[in-house]
Amino acid sequence: MNQTEKAELFGTLHRKGNPVVLYNIWDAGTARAVADAGANALATGSWSVAAAHGYADGEKLPMSVLVETAKSITAVIDLPLSVDFEGAYSAEPEGAAANVAKLVEVGAVGINFEDQVVGGGGLYPAERQAARIRAIRAMAEGKGIPFFINARTDLFLAESDLSKHAGLVDEAIERGRAYAAAGGSGFFVPGLIDPALIEKICAASPLPVNIMMRTGAPDVKTLAKLGVGRVSYGPGPYRSMMEKLKQEAATIYSPL
Question: Per the database entry, which stretches of residues form a coiled coil (predicted)?
Answer without folding.
Answer: none
